[in-house]
Amino acid sequence: MPPGLVTAADAAYYAGVPVGTIWRWASEGRIGRHGHGKATRYSVFDLNKAHRDEWTRELIEPGSAPALPEGAKAA
Rounded to whole angstroms, what are the CA distances from 22 to 37, 54, 55, 56? Predict the structure, then answer.
C-alpha cells in the first residue's frame, strides 16, 4: 500500500470531522480515494490536520475543508 493512505475512520480523526464528511469530500473530488468498498483508502496528504490539545488529544478545532477541484460543485 502506498504511504499516506488511511481508512475513512483514521482520515476523519486526523481532520477532526465525521466519517461521512470524508466520504463526501472524496465524492466531491476534494481528497484522493483509492480502492473500493471496505478496502477504500483516502490520502491523508490531501487533508488539513485538526488542532488537538497536546495532552488530552481532545479536538480544539477541525481542519479546514480541502479546496474543491476547478469546475466541481459542492454537495
Answer: 14, 24, 26, 24
The b-or-e profile of 32-71 (16+ CB within 10 A means b, else e) is bbeeeeeeebbbbebbeebebeeeeeeeeebeebbeeeee
Per-residue pLDDT tens for 39-52?
999 999 999 999 99
For the record, the C-alpha cell of 70 comes out as: 476547478
- Whether the CB-CB separation of 50 and 16 falls below 8 Å is answered with yes
Q: What is the pTM of this model?
A: 0.86
Residue with cell 475543508: 65
